[in-house]
Design a protein that fits this description.
132 residues; three-stranded antiparallel beta sheet; 5 strands; globular; Putative tick transposon
């Protein structure tokens, strides 16, 4: 995918139901089976954004999550259907975006000296605590 090479693959297609356990919103998402999509996606750790999120009433379910398994990645082909349009920029520079399934974070963490980004957390935050 990222190396510019493609190959044809056959996938099974499923319709799954995902639900926001706090609001009751649910939707069906068409998904393809793929045992491995990419490498490790980092989990959100506590940081300076934790208190600011709480002050703004934004609840993120992944903070200090023990389970590192991600069972579902929501792709950009569907994610646009669940964004509400509410975006908040935190003092750390990270953006918080509301979806119908909960809040997600994206942007570069400024507490570490490396160039790691938490943009990939979008997928894990959308599906954590969802029954699949």
């Amino acid at each position: 995918m990222f190396g510019g090479r493609t190959s044809d693959m056959n996938h099974k297609c499923y319709q799954i139901n995902v639900e926001n356990l706090h609001t009751g919103y649910s939707c069906q998402i068409p998904v393809l089976d793929q045992p491995i999509i990419c490498g490790s996606i980092p989990r959100l750790q506590k940081g300076p954004w934790t208190l600011e999120l709480a002050e703004r009433g934004i609840h993120i379910t992944d903070i200090d999550c023990v389970n590192s398994q991600i069972d579902l990645l929501i792709g950009s082909d569907f994610a646009g259907n669940i964004y509400t349009g509410k975006i908040q920029k935190l003092r750390t520079g990270i953006f918080s975006m509301e979806t119908k399934l909960g809040w997600v974070l994206m942007g570069k963490s400024q507490t570490t000296g490396d160039e790691n980004s938490i943009a990939a957390l979008v997928t894990s935050l959308l599906v954590h605590n969802q029954e699949i």
